[in-house]
Amino acid sequence: MRYFIIPALGLLGACATPQDMASSCQTYGFKPGTDSYAQCMQKEAHANNQRREHMRAKLREMGRPPEVTHCQADMLGTGFQCSTF
Questions:
Q1: Is 41 helix (H, G, I), strand (E, B) or coil?
Q2: Which of the two ends of the chain, N or C, has the fewest CB atoms closer than 10 A to its terminal CB?
Q3: CA-CA distance, 85 to 75, in Å (whole number)?
Q4: Can you give the pLDDT at residue 17?
Q5: Which among 17, 12, 13 has a CA at the least distance from the CA of 41?
Q6: Can you count the helices (H) and strands (E) in the chain?
Q7: Which residues, other chains included, contact 25 with Cβ-Cβ below 8 Å and sequence gap of 6+?
Q8: Residue 66 and residue 53: Cα distance in Å, rounded?
Q9: Residue 19's domain spans which residues?
Q10: DSSP SS3 for 73
């Protein structure tokens, strides 16, 4: 059983929270409320969604039903809309 738990935990660590994405964009030098910040947040959200899709595929390979939360930044990069399925 440990064989399945350890890889799954490693995959879960690959996904960023909205706060992580915002922190990354601010670290890159983008200011909240600017167009460049919003674009950064969109790119971070897209990259995060790709990581989540990869995680879902790996969980399917292990025979586990995945539950994934997708978050999308708003156009100004100041808020998020998330859904779990």
A1: helix
A2: N
A3: 23
A4: 81
A5: 17
A6: 3, 2
A7: 37, 40, 41, 44, 77
A8: 10
A9: 2-84
A10: strand
Average pLDDT over residues 20-45: 92
How far apart, in whole angstroms, are the C-alpha atoms of residue 43 and residue 38?
A: 9
Count of residues in the chain: 85
Tell me, yes or no, if the pTM score tops 0.70.
Answer: no
Q: Which residues contact 35 (CB under 8 A, 6 or more apart)?
A: none
- Give the count of domains, the chain: 1
Local confidence band at 31 (pLDDT 50, 70, 90 cut-offs): very high
Q: Counting beta carbons within 10 angstroms of the beta carbon of residue 81, is it exposed (0 to 12), middle (13 to 18) or buried (19 or more)?
A: exposed
Q: What is the model's pLDDT at position 59?
A: 81
Q: Which of 34, 68, 63 is CA-nearest to residue 52?
A: 68
What single-letter DSSP state applies at residue 66?
Answer: -
